Records
---
Amino acid sequence: MMNRHGRPSDAGPASAAAETATLLGHRGLDHEEPLLFELGHDGRVGVDLPPCPAVQGRLGDLARRGPIGLPSLSEPQVVRHYVRLSRKNYSIDAGLYPLGSCTMKHNPRLNEKLARLPGFADLHPLAPPSTTAGAVELMGQLAHWLLTLTGMAAIALSPKAGAHGELCGLMTIRAAHAAKGEGASRRRVLVPESAHGTNPATAAYCGFTVESIPATADGRVDRAVLEARLGPDVAAIMLTNPNTCGLFEREIIELARAVHAAGGYFYCDGANFNAIMGRVRPGDLGIDAMHINLHKTFSTPHGGGGPGAGPVVLSAALAPFAPLPLVVARGDGHALIETAEGEAAASFGRITAFHGQMGMFVRALAYMMSHGRDGLAQASGDAVLNANYILAALDDVMTAPFAGPCMHEALFDDHFLDGTGVTTLDFAKAMIDEGYHPMTMYFPLVVHGAMLIEPTESESKESLDNFIAVLRHLAAAAKAGEAERFKAAPRLAPRRRLDETLAARKPVLRWTPPTLSKAAE
Amino acid sequence: MRYLPHTAADRAAMLETIGAADIEALFCDVPAAARLGAALPLPDHQGEMAVERAIAALAARNRHSGMLPSFLGAGAYRHHVPATVDHLIQRSEFLTSYTPYQPEIAQGTLQYLFEFQTQVALLTGMEVANASMYDGSTACAEAVEMARRLTGRNRVVLSGNLHPHYRAVVETLLRLHDTVVEALPPAPAGGEALAPALDQGTACVVVQYPDVFGHVCDFTALAAAAQACGALLIVAVTEVVALGALRAPGAMGADIVVGEGQGLGVGLNYGGPYLGLFATRTKFLRQMPGRIAGETVDAEGRRGYVLTLSTREQHIRREKATSNICTNSGLCCLAFTIHLALLGEGGFCGLAALNHARAVHLAERLAGIAGVTPLTARFFNEFAVALDRPAGPVVEALAARGILGGVPGSRLWPGLEGLDKVLLLCATETNTEDEIDALGVALEEILA
């Protein structure tokens, strides 16, 4: 059976494969592409190196003896390989990317251009200080923007990503407790059950015992339970605000007071700072430490899973314990402190080589300067507006577990699919056939079959209207009994559903030459 | 504002659908006391020209490695990156995609991660590799944590010739746990004896190859000694290009190899973003941290790739995960893997040979200079020399003459006696013979 676009609408895998069978497996613009290792042939090369002078080698008996086994290709072959691979990816440049909690917003190309200026991109991290004043000044200006936006006292720029920032924050807190002689006694960290997985993982990695705090019926942390769990053995609470249900924690100021009264510190997961930037300062909420995902809030590109950047802002109480290196204000400019002396004497140590994600600092500063204070506040306002628009426009066909308004992301559960035979996963995969990347699925864990939609401020009203129309169409199809169509989805992507169980049960994690893999059998 | 699509009419129509008076009303859950009353003391939005002018002015205040002859190494290396690399990594589909959580529409990312893992396993001589960590130093700390989990032991031995930043990152992390760290003193002239430091309580011993002073050492005997007492050998490689000329750590018996992949494709970037490499043996796979791409089939039986073994990871295991790491260094992996694909077997080994030749010429040029004593007999593309005076002021004097003449020991080991006269020097394919001679002449004049 064909739909009105001439595509099979309910065909199973076998017939779909037959209809699209081609000699080489290509499907129009979607080319099958072998692995690099299957393309290479001896004798080809993709670079022309200058001649190598003969020298008296100094490697001794450690010179490599055999070949490595790398494939050899020419430049045009390499270009074609990666261009073909690229076309199998969804991207924010090509379409709305509604991954809740991940914040896929527009990535301005100006920022890419500036990060590639040789003065930054070709600067060695251990170059003499007399040659790096501009880099330190850029870090200082970034620090100034972030401290002004958050209302905090100090900043550690070096964390490499959000989870690394969490680690940095908790290590700072541990050092502060140790300085008061309470390092050994404060061993517990309280984490709401709606938290990102990195929060409990970080606390455990840091040597703390993790305790989960339940959510209330309105999607917020249960203040009564949290206050009852506070005590002289609690080091910190880790709270995300706005939280992962897309809601602002209304009692956050009271929570902060309670934690401080019990002698603990308040760590905030700043993954959702993009919802409140330019409107609310975390420092005014009583937060002691918060990481900022520059790749979310300040739009440095996600790059298929990184690199990120996770600077941590600190309260005055925690500032002395920040890791090295530190960028501090000095006279008219800024200085880089690399040793535990003077104002850094109480630093808890070093969490990475060198100074942090400089390339991301340049992009984030360019983003902030481009927006300005007015644009940043408008961006957070539009992000919240867009999420609420989606929540309102889908309210009658999908089910939202919590009453609005929401902040920057709209959360739905799977009750609207009850009795349809369609799961959240099926619904998400059907979105792929309609041309959309799915929303975040099954997170947060506190909501059954969660679908977390974050449109960001980058989407126009027309774009949102199309997206809403698609979700309404799919919700209606599910309720109309078209479960088979959902189970078979995606049918129009470069791949049908992939067997993840097989991948985990019989791990194949690298290419092996055919002769070797035969011998191993 | 050029990045925000809504017109006033759009916003009004959307607010009407929502049933809110204005955007401010959507923030009603924020306590009034927490809402900003006054505008922040920051400038308003600016156009591209103004932003570019301001940030380019900061870049212009740096004197970077392309402007001046550079002999800087010590954990970050300047190599020529073919133009193809940056062109390809800026394709929207790579640059602006997320972690490949929906594999049906992320096969591009997943396949290059699978290819990357294969390349890393081949270079290091190991069986499996992950899809990258933040950088070499954090990968090194993760390897130590992995060894502690695998052995159930709490004593860690660190070579004195491990890059001091790597050592500091490991020590900072291990201070969180009841761990005994035995870090040997730096041995600029080499000849460190690590085997005697191992015992039955040792989880792992960490060495660098080539080490921070450039020495290349055979760890085969150390691997055997570690195995004899049930400890793991972790080898850290800060200059990945060295693996084109040197025996692979896996061939010497390493259990975990970590590395800094910045030298291929990524660039200097004043220290980040970089690329952590992580490889190990198949039998340790379930304790390996980080993302891993694996091969599988789709519903039509076609080969495809997914993120796999995620039951090790934080988003599934939460506080029981092998690590808290979430982000990898995806785009840097891509740059690395494209650069290595262009080089191929011959190009990569040829590049390594060229690096070695340049460094040998540099060593020969400096050998006869009064006040310069070579410390590294066997090396790849960097080595240490002892000067007859503190190296810090000499490096600044060289910078004043327009030469980035190495990393002084005082920068890496501040306050450590004897190290202040040590100078770390590196030469790569980007250094010309003229530059090498210019450094020699300048050093002769400064040390005269």
Note: The domain at 83-338 of chain B is CATH 3.40.640.10 (Aspartate Aminotransferase; domain 2).
---
Amino acid sequence: MQDKRKERIDRGVKVRSDTIYAISSMKEIMYLIGPRMGLVLFLLALPLVLPIYWQKVVSITAVYALLAVSFGFLSSYVGLVNLGGALFVGVGGYISGLLNSAYGLPLYISIPAATLLGALFCTLVLLPCLPLRGIYFAIVSFVYPLAAVRIISATGAFGGTDGIAGLDMIGSGYGSQYFIIVTLLLVTFGVSRLVSAEDIGLIFRGVKDNEQAIKASGLNLTMYKAVAVFIGALIGSFAGAWLAHLYGWVGMSLMATDFSILPLAATVVGGTSTIYGPLVGTLLLVPISEALRDFGTLRIVFYSVAMVFFVVFWTEGLLIYIKRKYEQFERWVRV
Amino acid sequence: MDLIIYGLINSVSLVLSSIGFALAYGVSRVPNFAHGSLYVLTGYMTWLFLNQYKMPYIFAILLSLAIAGLVGSILYRYILIRVRGMPISEIIASFGIGMAILEMLRWAGLRGGTYMLPPFIRGSIDVAAVPVDYQRIIILIAGAAVVGFLWVFTHYTKTGLSLRGIAQNERAALTLGIDSDKAATVALGFGSALAGLAGVLMFPLGNITVQSGYEVLIFAIAVSVCGGLGSWGGAILASFLIGFAQIITVTYIASHYHFVVALLTIVIILILKPSGLFGRQKELEERV
């Protein structure tokens, strides 16, 4: 039997476009910007080509994608595995709903206000658990939205189990769809830039990989974790506030485990090593999950099975796999 | 008197529902987040065997416990073993499996009042002028029996001693020829069967619902975290602490807060003392 192994070699165009020759010809330029522009154009074209029903799905997908980006940012760049994304959504939604219904603020004020206040609130609430790491932080953050739901239903605060209905609605026209899609793109690129090109991104990665080094550098560990949580919560609260006005209703279902687990599944499926992994994972998972809505909870079965499959058998995730195929070619060589 | 008796019963049911989780975690360091789903699955299988296949009750129970144990072992042997040592992946994988099982059951129609297990012995008895039904007495006895059995098992049998060896010091145990993966498989099987046992004992008090699977998982986590992950003695003490705290809350405040107590306990204990009451992990590992 002949022993063989797989050899991977960078494609010529990849090697050339790594250097100054990147701008030497159209081909190299297209090779570099192709995938990125492809993603942007794909997202921007969606509202134009989809039928009416699916346009709502676009908004929901974008909301989940925001949550997934927030989760991916916190887990792969700061090392805080936040299983309680639903807390951000719920807090953002409830604040926006209260501002809108009780104080009569229009939604273009209530949503930004809810984003800021919600992020502030979530950061303050999570502040005591920031010294925790790994599975301990994961457990505590998972418990927060569950406890919040129980407290709301027990005390009957904010409309109790009925929630608050009759909020101003966001129409499903092109304006709102483009707004959420552009926001999603800006947030994704912004976070990606933050972690790769800014000083604070370096500190965040230090927080994840080596807390001792951060402390030894005289930096305040908890403060940087709080800043990271604040950024994650900003994204999550905005998603929640948007969702509240998309449905015109705020209730306990905004804190459903769905909002914590689906972004996690999307991140696992897309791959954790870049911020685009969660985005790609969401674009894949959420439409399928929405299409399965007729089958009730079968969609939860679907994405939990996908999540288990990827985390156990295909850890690198889809995006890294695609990237490898794009940048390298493979061949079998004799050993 | 009410308080003491029902607090005791509640605490023992917490012990029952969390000891499997604590055992599996203590030995294999795999937090089995599919614990709650095995609890519900066993109850459902018992119901199925009892009503669909008309088996005798005791036989149905034993069969479904055996299946639960087998499912737990298979889960570890073929899936979780690949992510062992990566805590976050362990949680994601086991929770994903648990959620898939539970939601599959919900999709298959597990809801409403049709799914009920009969109590082992009907009727009730007055204990110090408080009426207590026999099922709850059986839970008390079973809880004590399980704890006693586990103590004897881990102190006097070869398998049990090897489990303890792995739990205390995996490397030293490996040098003595104990197969850590085999021990972990046994531990997860045992833990799952214990989750099933808790289900079979407690479902006769109410309906079999999917939601109870998530609740049992949360209770098991609360108890294990509070007692110190991996410490069985701590888990038992924590069960009594949380059990009585819950009953006191229900009696003096409102029954809605029953669940919130467990959740808040997790948060408070983790913030104040992350290693739990009796945790053996060093503080450094969790908190820098």
Note: Chain B has one domain: 2-108+134-286.
---
Amino acid sequence: MIRQEFRILLVDLSIGKGKIVLVDGRNSVAGGSGLAALLFREYGHPDRGWDDPAQPLIFAIGPLTGYFPLMSKTVCSFKSNYHREYTESHAGGRSALALRFADLDALVIHGRAKVLSCLGIGAHSLELKEASFLRGMDAETSGKLIRRMFKDGSGHRSIMRIGPAGEAGLAMACINVDTYRHFGRMGGGAIMGTKNLKGLVIHGDSDFMVPEGKGYGAEFKEIYTKVTATEMMRKYHDLGTPENLQGLNDISSLPWKNLQETHDPAIASITGRAFADQTLLRNGACSGCPVGCIHIGYIREKAADNRYHYHQVAYDYEPIFAAGTMLGVTKPFDVLRILDVMEKVGLDAMSGGVALAWATEATQRGLISAAETGVPLRFGDADSYRLAAKNLGLAANDFYRLLGQGTMKAAAVYGGGDFGCVLGQEMAGYATGELFFAAQTLGFRHSHLDTGAYSYDQKNSDRDIDKAVDFLMADEPGRVFLTSMVGCLFARSVYTEEQLARCLDLLGFSTLAANIPGTAEQIRRLRWQVRAKTGFDPANFTIPKRFYQIKTWKGLVDGSYLDSLKQEYGRRIQQLIAADQ
Amino acid sequence: MEAMFSWKSSQMKQLTTPRIDQCIGCHSCSLACARHVHKKLSWNAAGIRIRSAGGLSTGFTAHRCLACSPAPCAQVCPTGAYIDRPGGGVIVKRALCIRCGQCVEACPVEAIYQDQGGEVYVCIHCGQCVPFCPQNCLEMVETAGNREVSI
């Protein structure tokens, strides 16, 4: 191990200075998700607004970061402007290893810079640079300029930045990480925006000795072999997650046109295979992960006769669902063109796509018109969606400014809440059934990755409430522990409890290795308790009518089963929060 | 003696990157070199280092020893810590290094890294990184047959 304590850099943007602190707690919170919650409890202000300058923006890694394959993710936590509660978002790119090699377990940013600025940190540097000239600039161009502002460390640093959506304080604003990754959900971009922080550069310029003896190298090799020579490589590298488009459509679980349908024969033109055959340029990887799940496609634009330019656009299952099937857009290049706009303005693609799907149905029903949306919205009309995505990211008028705070915020004013596809936040692309709907509604991150509910739905057609909620409760701690390491959840089949214990032991974290179940439970509880301090109550989250009206492979959604699941899951979470307080 | 030298030379292998276009930027090669050769966890303390060629949208390049013969870094080394390796590149005798950094300056392709403490890192063409490239970008080839053309 590098050290038992957590080494934290606290940066006060109001003065451009930082402070290194050592924090105890390795054996109780491990790192990552657990460390982020611990730091929010220490430095956060549950009762103050999300945009209070004193609120922290936290980036945390874990004890295994960089030491083993796929231990390549960073946890970002903050008080969200989406639901005004504590939340987490996860991303990879180079962020995790950059923090590791900057010799930090976490970075805590508080205060507000006097003018729009960029922060650069490393193992041997800390510098806040004024960057007013980046105001309003898109995330792509900003990245290029920030590279020039901070000259050292090409290839060995992580560059995070926001687009106009973050500067506008939208709850759908993401933090772009190294061009192709994102802290996407829950409005992390707005937190940077309110802190006047346009960019963050983390330079990983230190190194550490690896454990002595042959054990560490041998264990690394064994895990490396598993992740590169097995099904995981095929599943995530080849066609990648977009392979699921066909499968979910086949079982009537793919949201189409604002979830008016869960199946459409038009899937044939928008499968993972279609994206790979037509648009895929290459794969990319997070630093420290040999799987290479990042799929980078291209779009070619014609400016005038014989004048072309091209852009590279990353795609995954979720963005394709949001900017594709949910909007009735069925040509891969059209989907990428919409995603390209969302990238530039710095919008979370999932939230943005689902919000525009609601706006389209609201237009169909006459609740809104081009007077609000600027362009007439019709399912399948990709050109209009490009303009609408831009308007949304720029908060171009009162309507888009409101919609950018969340679909239900707009629905509260314009109507149409019944068909807003929101489960805590804009839905993920799984219309698999009742358990997923209840789980995303109340899940910690409102993410499909909080629990395996979408998978449970696909395997179980019974309606046993206790069995289903027991599954959610039992599934969460393992995931929380992995996101405290901080490993990619794609690797959860390789990183079993036994495997994680061996890894931790090899690095000298023997106490932690010996008590994984207990620590996982403790971290899970801590996260929920920290969130509860900021106002979490299951009653705050409702499930719109649309989710009661659809048909999955199991038939029509059973409304009473769905309500019971939500009620019981909420009760169990509250029980968790109340424990040992 | 001459015949023996010639035999050795033809048996020396070099690290090459014939399929670097397939690189996904995972840094597995650098991390493997640091881990196995230098016993470190590092992006930098390695004989092969991956950088983007001007931002992540432009792909990746590998900074590594091109096995010059004679090697400019060995020519300028004042203590014999770097000596010419038969077939190209250098043999490193770390105990002789005085951390002057002249090798770093002499290398025309930025293949040598010097850390904060002055220690220098260069590829020794041992090939330990090769099996850790998931994209098969790297290859050890006989010196005599080395062709850096990917077709």
Note: The longest helix of chain B spans residues 2-11.
---
Amino acid sequence: MCRNQPSFDNHFLQTVHGVCRLPYVVGGVSSADLRLTFNSARGSSLPPLKPIRHTMENGPPTAEIAAQTTASAAGAKPFWSEDIWAIVLGMAMLALAFTAALVWSDDVSGRFSSPGKWSNDPWASMVGKGEVPLWKSSLASLVAISLLAIPAMMLTRRDNKSGAPLRITAGFWTIALLATAAFVMAGQEVVKQYGFEYVLWALVLGLVISNTIGTPAWMRGAVRGELFIKWGLVLLGAEVLIGKLLLLGLPGILVSWFVTPIVLVVTFLFGCHILKIRSPSLVMVVAADMSVCGVSAAIATAAACRAKREELSLAIALSLCFTAVMMVAMPMTLRLAGVNEIVAGAWIGGTIDSTGAVAAAGALMGGEGPDAKERAERAVKIATTVKMIQNILIGAIAFAVSVYWATKYETDADPKQPQTNLGAKQFGAEVWNRFPKFVLGFVGASIIASAIVATGSAGDSLVTASIDGITKNIRGWLFCLAFVCIGLETNFRTLLPALSGGKTVLLYVCGQAFNILLTGLMAYLVFGWLFYDAILSWLPAGTTP
Amino acid sequence: MTNDRVPIHSPGVPTSGIIGLSATVLVIVSVWGWVLPMVGNRPTIRQSIENTQRLGINPAAVFYTDVYEKTKTPQPLWQQQ
């Protein structure tokens, strides 16, 4: 069932199969553009051929598709794809961040940021409490992004009209304005307290515009959600520090790395084979979002398995809504049940989707009484460390999913027929062509940052200053810009099919129930029994029970 | 990621679109400008907000590197070792 990745293009798109091998030939081309190009084939004398699957991305326009298709039909896939650009931009930004951290030394903090927290006055989000006002450091982040993004968007423009420098610049800064509004909305203390991250509000603002007045044509050249997401993911790779795995040692790894892949695979199989959800990419994004680490995992997995935008949007919205409930209900239930805060911390850390919500839920484990603060700190420490180890898993999951998709789904061959006719060399070449290359940038950034940290305290300080002071803020802006773009390109009507008649919600609920049970079992086994004494000695003095 | 993109062109903005946008902006301004600040001042919500503030936690963190608001908490919990 899951082998055929369905698409609403399928019923009318017919490819000139055998002439050009569409799914990987036109990687980087939007389905809308493909419609324009290939609809003409419907009325032509070409024989009807089997429908292609939906594996197209944003990219060059109709005017360039013909040239690309011709080139690709001859086997020459353009090297400078969006993935390669994302790697170049991400690595350039990382190099600049490391250089800036070296030059500015300890003074790098606060130079780049995003709008902050506020209670009653939205302008407070632009002022902040640091030496540099947040509006200045936010502007600095956007200027840094624009200096790399605008030339890249011009070089990879879809067509000459929308790719005009003035239009791209105006479009970029309009999207940046919406992204700023999304950060301000997310910064309201109540919104922030319940973990409704900026990506949700960026998506909402984009959706509001596209579904009311429509996205203006002059913005089109700058609406490049894919580029922003992949670029942001390469920067996120630098935050995946392999050494952090050792923080909780074996207990943390047992809970995070044993349970998470099992929950991911079981939820995926359940969604595909039991619920029979037609889109495996939707099932994978929901499964990763729910079992790994919420929004960041959903973004990475969606890019790795080339999920549709509305599938990613739905998975994130679903996850944030359930997280808001779970972050209050779970610690409350565990406290009422009298669960030890160490076990509860591990349970919360391995179960609640969003990373920030895990810490907030851990803090609620304190409850009342004279030792409430210590209990809360113990629970927060265990919960955030388990979640951190789970966060690190995002790299392995994204890599595994991209390889699995490249070999299993990104094929134009008949899914019912095993691909035994392909030689090993041909098969390898096919997989390489279909592989989302930005994942290499993501993994590469992680290896580089981890290697620098491993050199010693100077390396650790350099990476920490670069990430905390620069790249994580830039990454946040890139994800925010990406979700504004996704909203600007999404119609409410396309969100409904992604719900699959409520099956997606059912998938999330069943997957999460399994996750809670399995994580609870492992938390008791590992944190409450096998390694309990070791955990106590690991906790800082003054917080042990 | 892939998608069926909404046609990005607006030959003329329909009146219903302008009304819809204006109404949504009004709702957003009302909720963020009035409702949420009011909700934030309720004792139970205020207490939970102050609790996370005291620990320097950002409940809306996307990744573990975002969890602690370092400007407010000089020593994040995992650096206390």
Note: DSSP finds 23 helices and no strands in chain A.
